[in-house]
């Protein structure tokens, strides 16, 4: 009979080895299967058990909030409010900028506060560039209107001080102009009386285009003096305006003899202007303004005659040019121009200088033709 072990190539143990195995003490099978643990590991495990209480649980990590929860909306709300506030500030800023620019544009187009109602309604009638240059002058009489006119009435100087319901005469003249002197010497006495009685308003436009006829810019110096009187001593403006055309004072255009500042000051004092003011004429306070007034005035279409020409003297009655030549001829000559003027205004000679006696044409009527 064959042996299985031998067949597997193992040697069969002898009887002595079998007996030794049987004689060895028997152990529990579970203890044999249990791995050995060192004393050090056992102590560490025991220490860990003592350090951690049996009922203590590890702390948990707080879960992140889900989008849309109230807590997260509370953090977003301030940010939204800030954005809205910034948008409102930007809108307000743009609105203010637009308003200011619109206001500036309107201010640039708005006429001076001294402009008469008629001037406001029709605006400047002369060259636009010359008008703009006139407005750009910084030192000018505050009583002047935007076209350089100086309006005199019983109430004072300035368009706002016009007497209502009476005619307005607008006069253009150059202090060197010989015909201005001739016309002035005839009508100025009547003008002064009518102004004082509140029967008319007179707007003076003093020009200087005849500076070239003098060696010392006589016209500009006189115009500056007249402007200073209008600003500082308006009550004496009509008298001083008449005095510069006095026959014994006005220089000859064709053979000019120099007129000193001192002599001009003396002429003003003779018309009632205070010496303290007259002595300052030489400072030329308004000379730049005078230049621009003249440059603009000669371009005014409303001041040109029927032929489309501008000349001095020119007199407008209620905004229309009055034909001086025809008026003088109707009364027998220039020396009777004062009578022609009264007829044009509709005022009797005996009523001149009497308050309450008003010209019939009023503030809107056209000049009456002399018969």
TrEMBL record:
Residues 1-73, 102-125 are annotated as: Disordered. The chain crosses the membrane at residues 79-98. Keywords: Membrane, Transmembrane, Transmembrane helix. Residues 46-60 have a biased composition (Basic and acidic residues). Pfam families: Thioredoxin_4. The keyword Membrane applies. SUPFAM superfamilies: Thioredoxin-like (SSF52833). The keyword Membrane applies. Residues 168-323 form the Thioredoxin-like fold domain. Residues 102-122 have a biased composition (Polar residues). This is Thioredoxin-like fold domain-containing protein.
């Amino acid at each position: 009979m064959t042996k299985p072990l031998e067949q597997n190539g193992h040697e069969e143990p002898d009887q002595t080895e079998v007996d030794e195995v049987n004689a060895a003490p028997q152990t529990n099978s579970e203890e044999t299967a249990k791995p050995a643990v060192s004393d050090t590991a056992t102590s560490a495990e025991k220490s860990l058990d003592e350090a951690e209480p049996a009922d203590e649980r590890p702390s948990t990590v707080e879960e992140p909030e889900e989008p849309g929860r109230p807590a997260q909306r509370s953090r977003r709300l301030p940010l939204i409010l800030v954005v809205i506030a910034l948008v409102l500030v930007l809108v307000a800023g743009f609105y203010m900028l637009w308003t200011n620019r619109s206001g500036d544009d309107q201010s640039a187009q708005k006429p001076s506060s001294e402009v008469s109602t008629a001037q406001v309604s029709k605006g400047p009638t002369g060259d636009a560039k010359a008008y703009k240059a006139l407005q750009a002058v910084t030192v000018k009489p505050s009583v002047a209107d935007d076209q350089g006119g100086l309006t005199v009435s019983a109430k004072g100087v300035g368009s706002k001080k016009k007497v209502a319901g009476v005619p307005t005469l607008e006069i253009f003249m150059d202090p060197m102009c010989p015909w201005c002197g001739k016309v002035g010497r005839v009508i100025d006495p009547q003008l002064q009386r009518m102004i004082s009685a509140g029967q008319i308003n007179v707007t003076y436009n003093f020009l200087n285009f005849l500076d070239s006829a003098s060696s010392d810019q006589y016209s500009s110096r006189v115009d500056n003096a007249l402007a200073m009187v209008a600003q500082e001593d308006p009550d004496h403006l009509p008298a001083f305006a008449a005095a510069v055309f006095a026959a014994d004072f006005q220089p000859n255009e064709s053979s000019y003899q120099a007129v000193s500042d001192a002599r001009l000051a003396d002429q003003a004092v003779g018309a009632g202007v205070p010496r303290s003011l007259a002595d300052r004429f030489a400072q030329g306070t308004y000379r730049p303004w005078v230049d621009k007034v003249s440059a603009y005035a000669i371009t005014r279409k409303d001041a040109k005659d029927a032929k489309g020409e501008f000349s001095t003297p020119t007199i407008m009655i209620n905004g229309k040019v009055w034909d001086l030549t025809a008026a003088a001829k109707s009364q027998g000559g220039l020396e009777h121009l004062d009578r022609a003027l009264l007829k044009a205004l509709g005022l009797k000679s005996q009523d001149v200088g009497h308050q309450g006696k008003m010209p019939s044409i009023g503030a809107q009527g056209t000049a009456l033709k002399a018969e």
